[in-house]
């Protein structure tokens, strides 16, 4: 069963606007990661946040983690058309060895 | 040039045939993974290997087989027992969870 579930499934915004995606999970985690996938390509790692961290920044990306609510959010500020992609969260549970991916949020940024 | 390569990019198979997808990495990573992705969906783990000569089943291992004879190689065989093999297959590697995974470009398998 999927550990992480992203919300919304699809998001369409204008260039320059901010985009927020959410991820919820079910069991305790060691860390949570966000990945990006352009259509028909492999995934690219964006950011990792550990269970003892609450917020992390990387360029135009801001990730928050609320372990009490078992949820995370990814904020992309000042979006660009090139940000159009699918975004996935992945969790590493307390059982080491593998990550579990959600179904992703498809972001479309209109120029 | 470090990274993960997958071949072929596109693969067509007739029903009843086995087919092997290649995954090679030169990142010196211990762990490797195979995922399946269906249209509009996330990744589902097929098999993973944390060390040479050892591998574990993921969530959807039925109809698939793997081997890990070398650190840099983790081929996936899609057997005729896999009832619905048409999908996008992604290989990844890392130094072991919870490390970041590095993904290959994927192989799109179509059963005719």
Strand and helix layout:
The complex is a heterodimer of chains A (111) and B (112).
Chain A lengths: L4 E3 L2 E5 L4 E6 L4 E9 L5 E8 L4 E4 L2 E6 L4 E6 L8 E9 L5 E3 L3 E6 L1
Chain B lengths: L3 E4 L2 E4 L5 E7 L5 E7 L5 E9 L2 E4 L6 E3 L9 E3 L8 E8 L7 E2 L3 E5 L1
Parallel strand pairs in B: 2-11
Antiparallel strand pairs in B: 1-3, 3-8, 4-5, 4-9, 5-6, 7-8, 9-10, 9-11
Provide structural commentary.
The complex is a heterodimer of chains A (111) and B (112). By secondary structure, chain A is mainly beta. Chain A has no helices and eleven strands. In chain A, strands 2, 4, 5, 9, 10 and 11 form a six-stranded mixed β-sheet that branches. Chain A has a five-stranded antiparallel β-sheet with strand order 1-3-8-7-6, with no helix packed on it. The mean pLDDT of chain A is 92. Chain B is mainly beta and 112 residues long. Chain B has strands at 4-7, 10-13, 19-25, 31-37, 43-51, 54-57, 64-66, 76-78, 87-94, 102-103, 107-111. Chain B is globular and about 35 Å long. At the A-B interface, strand 4, strand 5, strand 9 and strand 10 of A face strand 4, strand 5, strand 9 and strand 10 of B.
User: Low-confidence segments of chain A, ≥5 residues, pLDDT <50?
Assistant: none
Ranges of chain B with pLDDT <50 over ≥5 residues? none
Mean pLDDT of chain A, rounded to whole units?
A: 92
Biggest sheet descriptor of chain B: 7 strands, mixed
Overall geometric form of chain B: globular
Task: Using the CA coordinates, give the radius of gyration of chain B.
Answer: 13 Å
**How many β-strands of chain A, per DSSP?**
11
Instruction: Describe the oligomeric state of these chains in a short phrase.
Output: heterodimer
User: What is the strand content of chain A?
Assistant: over 45%
Count of β-strands of chain B: 11
Biggest sheet of chain A, open or closed, and with what strands and sense?
Answer: 6 strands, mixed
């Amino acid at each position: 069963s999927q550990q992480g579930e992203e919300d919304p499934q699809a998001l369409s915004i204008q260039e320059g606007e901010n985009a927020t995606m959410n991820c919820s999970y079910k069991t305790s985690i060691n860390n949570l990661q966000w990945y990006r996938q352009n259509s028909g390509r492999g995934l690219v790692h964006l950011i990792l946040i550990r269970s003892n961290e609450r917020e992390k920044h990387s360029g135009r990306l801001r990730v928050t983690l609320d372990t009490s609510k078992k949820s995370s959010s990814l904020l992309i500020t000042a979006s660009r058309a090139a940000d159009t992609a699918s975004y996935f969260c992945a969790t590493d549970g307390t059982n080491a060895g593998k990550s579990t991916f959600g179904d992703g949020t498809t972001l479309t940024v209109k120029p | 040039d470090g990274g993960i390569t997958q071949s072929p990019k596109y693969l067509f198979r007739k029903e009843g045939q086995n087919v092997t997808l290649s995954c090679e990495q030169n990142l010196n990573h211990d762990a490797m993974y195979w995922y399946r992705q269906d249209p509009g969906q996330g990744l589902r783990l097929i098999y993973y290997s944390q060390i040479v000569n050892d591998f574990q089943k993921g969530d959807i291992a039925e109809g698939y087989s793997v081997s890990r004879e070398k650190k840099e190689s983790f081929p996936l065989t899609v057997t005729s027992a896999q009832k619905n093999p048409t999908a996008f297959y992604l290989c990844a590697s890392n130094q072991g969870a919870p490390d970041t995974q590095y993904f290959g470009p994927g192989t799109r398998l179509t059963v005719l």
